[in-house]
């Protein structure tokens, strides 16, 4: 299996590459273009967030990349294998954690894991050993004999992740991993996902419609809307590119504010400042580095700000400005 | 193809383990035919003397009908299980592995057949106490016939379950198929008692011929054309069911 992977051998190599990947559904005479030719690539060792509102084409794209759905157009290489020509090769190399779950309620956790590993040709002894190690790593050491239906939401989701990792895939797809979890379980899950990459070097492709999740986990984001990739970059790049940071300065009087407004307008990349009474509002690409220079300049003119605020845009703002719609459901 | 076999075994043993842990469902499945046996069978003992009643005593006529009923219904309702598995993400989880698609459905069908054969043995054993007297080899041939029938329905039921993906759509569909099949196959009362038009309708129903075949086997007439027809139909059904089931499973990722 290793000799058929020309472009995935070391870090920095391409793990996913799509060219015009698309999917058309035909239902009752109507044609729905769920995914309209997406092109992107994911390098080995990256955590890439795939972001978009419900119905944007996230799940359809994910199902194509995991061989659960045949593309109607375009092509892709996943983990070094051609999606169309060698879906079985792709299946051997990837892990997939669906938002629907992976285990029967009546089944016992350990048995589900070992039986799943058998599909990859892993013998029972090795499977048991790996399953126990992975369960321990995800704080699930004592659930072997438990029925999956009796686990808590967070435990069951981590069990799904263990299931997706049992054959030590190089690439893992996580579909909306924290949906339905309480804040504490989410934070805990994020820690585990980061560890996957940091400690084992697994490439992680994660879909989400939660901005904070994308922000907290991803090295890079792909934003999809109406079946097309509308933006791509690191979370901070995207935020910077779209709206910049909002700086709000407060002064003793209106005269100071007007003078400060003129100074703020000269900052590199600044949008025209808005002066309201003794408040000045201005957007700059990087507020944290621009602010000290501005304050120093004002000090030379003997103007002191009485209040300073820098607000980073959220990915919600990014999404809103890209698509004109909010991500929140 | 060793992977198909080992994958089938993996799917089968997982499913079997789940069934063994839930003996209640196996018991409920057998309860209905046993109720027929105890509460309806004795009525037939009287009817057996009516003109037009087929050869053989009441039990030799009635028990094959119950066995066929068990085979049809035992198989027909397994689709509910696959809808639940699909909803829990188990089907997709198995589909993203390199496992053979044929194995994913066949392993489950194999489990259903094993459960069915166990139920059929229990039913035949109970019938013995009511007065059924049949040579053991006839029972064995009968079990093979029932196993084939159950496998065919199990394949079809899984396929339809995965096509509908909804209990609300699946349940009425199954009941609509089950009732005419049941009534027209002479399972409860032999069709030889029916008026001519009903006999014609019934002759179109392949299951009527399977019931007739099983009755002939229980009478010891294994080499009769009725038995040959029943076996051919059963083989055709299982081929059709397996083809359809595997097609639907493979189409899940289309």
UniProtKB/TrEMBL annotation, chain A:
Chief location bin: membrane
Keywords: ATP-binding, Nucleotide-binding, Transport
Signal peptide range: none
InterPro entries per record: AAA+_ATPase (IPR003593), ABC_transporter-like_ATP-bd (IPR003439), ABC_transporter-like_CS (IPR017871), DrrA (IPR005894), DrrA1/2-like_C (IPR025302), P-loop_NTPase (IPR027417)
Subcellular location: Cell membrane
SMART domains, per the entry: AAA
An MF annotation (GO) of this entry: ATP hydrolysis activity
Membrane protein topology class: Peripheral membrane protein
ABC transporter domain sequence ranges: 16-251
GO cellular component, one term: plasma membrane
Gene3D superfamilies, per database record: P-loop containing nucleotide triphosphate hydrolases
One BP term from GO: daunorubicin transport
Entry's family note: Belongs to the ABC transporter superfamily. Drug exporter-1 (DrugE1) (TC 3.A.1.105) family.
PANTHER family reported for this sequence: ABC TRANSPORTER (PTHR43582:SF5), LINEARMYCIN RESISTANCE ATP-BINDING PROTEIN LNRL (PTHR43582)
NCBIfam families per UniProt: drrA
Identification of the protein by name: ABC transporter
Source species of the chain: Devosia pacifica
């Amino acid at each position: 299996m290793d000799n058929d992977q020309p472009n995935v051998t070391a870090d920095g190599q391409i793990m996913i590459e799509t060219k015009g990947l698309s999917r058309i559904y035909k239902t009752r005479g109507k044609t729905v273009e769920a995914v309209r030719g997406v092109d992107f690539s994911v390098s080995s060792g990256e955590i890439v967030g795939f972001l978009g509102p419900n119905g944007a084409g996230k799940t359809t794209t994910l199902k194509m990349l995991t061989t659960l759905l045949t593309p109607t157009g375009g092509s892709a290489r996943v983990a070094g294998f051609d999606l169309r020509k060698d879906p079985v090769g792709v299946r051997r190399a990837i892990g997939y954690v669906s938002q629907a779950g992976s285990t029967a309620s009546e089944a016992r956790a350990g048995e589900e894991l070992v039986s799943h590993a058998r599909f990859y040709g892993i013998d029972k002894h090795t499977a048991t050993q790996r399953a126990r190690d992975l369960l321990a790593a995800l704080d699930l050491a004592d659930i072997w004999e438990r029925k999956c239906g009796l686990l808590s939401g967070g435990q069951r989701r981590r069990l799904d992740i263990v299931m997706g990792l049992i054959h030590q895939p190089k690439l893992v797809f996580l579909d909306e991993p924290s949906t339905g979890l309480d804040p504490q379980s989410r934070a805990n899950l994020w820690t585990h996902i980061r560890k996957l990459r940091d400690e084992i070097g697994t490439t992680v492709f994660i879909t989400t419609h939660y901005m904070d999740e994308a922000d907290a986990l991803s090295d890079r984001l792909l934003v999809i809307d109406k079946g097309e990739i509308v933006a791509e970059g690191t979370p901070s790049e995207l935020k910077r590119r779209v709206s910049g940071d909002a700086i709000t300065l407060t002064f003793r009087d209106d005269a100071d504010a007007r003078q400060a407004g003129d100074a703020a307008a000269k900052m590199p990349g600044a949008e025209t400042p808005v002066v309201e009474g003794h408040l000045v509002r201005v957007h700059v690409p990087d507020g944290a580095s621009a602010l000290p220079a501005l304050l120093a300049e004002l000090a030379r003119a003997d103007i002191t700000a009485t209040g300073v605020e820098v607000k980073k845009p959220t990915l919600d703002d990014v999404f809103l400005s890209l698509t004109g719609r909010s991500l929140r459901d | 193809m060793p992977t198909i076999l080992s994958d089938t075994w993996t799917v089968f043993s997982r499913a079997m383990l789940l069934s063994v842990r839930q003996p209640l469902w196996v018991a409920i499945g057998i309860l209905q035919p046993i109720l027929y046996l105890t509460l309806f069978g004795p009525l037939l003992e009287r009817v057996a003397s009516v003109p037009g009643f087929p050869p053989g005593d009441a039990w030799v006529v009635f028990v094959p009908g119950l066995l066929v009923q068990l085979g049809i219904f035992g198989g027909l309702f397994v689709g509910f299980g696959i809808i639940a598995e699909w909803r829990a993400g188990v089907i997709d989880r198995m589909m993203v592995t390199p496992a053979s698609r044929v194995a994913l459905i066949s392993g489950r069908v194999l489990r259903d057949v094993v459960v069915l054969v166990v139920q059929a043995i229990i039913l035949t054993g109970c019938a013995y106490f009511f007065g059924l007297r049949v040579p053991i080899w006839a029972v064995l041939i009968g079990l093979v016939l029932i196993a084939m029938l159950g496998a065919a329905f199990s394949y079809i039921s899984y396929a339809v379950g995965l096509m509908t993906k909804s209990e609300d759509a699946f349940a009425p569909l199954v009941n609509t198929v089950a009732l005419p099949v049941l009534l027209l196959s002479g399972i409860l009362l032999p069709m030889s008692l029916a008026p001519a038009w009903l006999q014609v309708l019934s002759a179109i129903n392949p299951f009527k011929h399977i019931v007739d075949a099983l009755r002939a086997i229980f009478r010891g007439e294994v080499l009769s054309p009725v038995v040959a027809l029943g076996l051919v139909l059963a083989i055709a059904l299982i081929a059709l069911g397996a083809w359809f089931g595997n097609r639907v499973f493979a189409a899940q990722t289309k």
